[in-house]
């Protein structure tokens, strides 16, 4: 058989696509703190999708062994992502609370747009990252303090600031020491439910230093593990980690579940929104314990570099047990 460069090229493409898909599956499970691997894991779903290209190209060339291998890789990739699409609906019991998470890009986000979204969606709990003193003042002028009159804030320069706004009274406020950025919690007294623990988190991005990033995610997990077991818990934050980071899935485990996974909302990409291309990764998350998310969506926020995240969560008086699937670990 004579050498056919076109056939060889097509075969090379099929194998490269299959290997890229296998790499994506491996990155999904990797717990490495290597900067290259952590950053690459953010794009794991895109790599996994390339295995489907491998299947198609192998099939076109009638290379059935290749089709089988690429098919196995594609199936493994689909299995890792399936929990994002297979969440169930709420049982209709309990009180529904709307929670919003927003990263303001320092004081770049349009305060009026944020307040309008809070009002239109009847948000009761708002967690905010990259909150500066100037942003606090601007949000106040836009009417946020009238809409959500209770707040616990720790504003800071550039990315450090974090805040919680609530339509219900807040108590037991805590700021956690030893983190690069500010991490907060408070207890909201929500009618028909009682006390609800609320956390606003913002671990450093992996580009700051992947060992620090991994350590902060681990320490935030330890904080959540100490959350009161006799009440529901709501968590909002820019976690600087995607569902495909094993370190994040470890945090959203046990009694805690990612709201998007519970609701079967799929891939909700939130970052970046200030580029010429659309957002590529989902690093903003809302978690819950003792509740179940029934709907989660992203919301555009002019002037910010993240889309905001809004979740409708059914809470009950139960003792914080996870009432929905926590997803593949």
From TrEMBL:
Record's keyword annotation contains 4Fe-4S: no
Keyword check for Membrane: yes
Superkingdom field: Bacteria
Residues of the Endonuclease/exonuclease/phosphatase domain: 100-303
Residue ranges of coiled coil: none
Gene3D superfamilies membership: Endonuclease/exonuclease/phosphatase (3.60.10.10)
Gene Ontology molecular-function annotations: endonuclease activity
Keyword annotations from UniProtKB, A to Z: Endonuclease, Hydrolase, Membrane, Nuclease, Transmembrane, Transmembrane helix
Residues passing through the membrane, by range: 6-29, 36-58, 64-85
Protein name in the entry: Endonuclease/exonuclease/phosphatase family protein
Natural source organism: Nocardia fusca
Phylogenetic placement of the source organism: Bacteria, Bacillati, Actinomycetota, Actinomycetes, Mycobacteriales
